[in-house]
Amino acid sequence: MALSIVSAATLLFSVWVSLILPGQVAKPLVSLKEAVDHAATGNFEIDFELHGGGEVVELAKSVQKLTSLLRGKPERGDRAREPSPMNSEIEES
Predict the structure, then answer these.
(1) pTM to 2 decimals?
(2) DSSP assignment of the chain, as one string?
């Protein structure tokens, strides 16, 4: 009888882990992907909430930092016309 209870509890836990937990992990990744997709189109005014800790939140913080830096930069076409130290070093070689 005790073995049946332990087996049932293990089965329920396994079902929970396989159904519920992946959704909790995937949801922040999907939100982060959508934010990065918006940034790729030139919309750097993205905003997303950060909850908890771990690698996904650290990645999200890095994306937020990147988009905030890009907000202050000129458009890509304008940047290509500006002389940069890297371009001048290449041209001098």
Answers:
(1) 0.53
(2) -HHHHHHHHHHHHHHHHHHHHHHHHHHHHHHHHHHHHHHHTT---------S-SHHHHHHHHHHHHHHHHHTSPPHHHHHHS--HHHHHHHH-
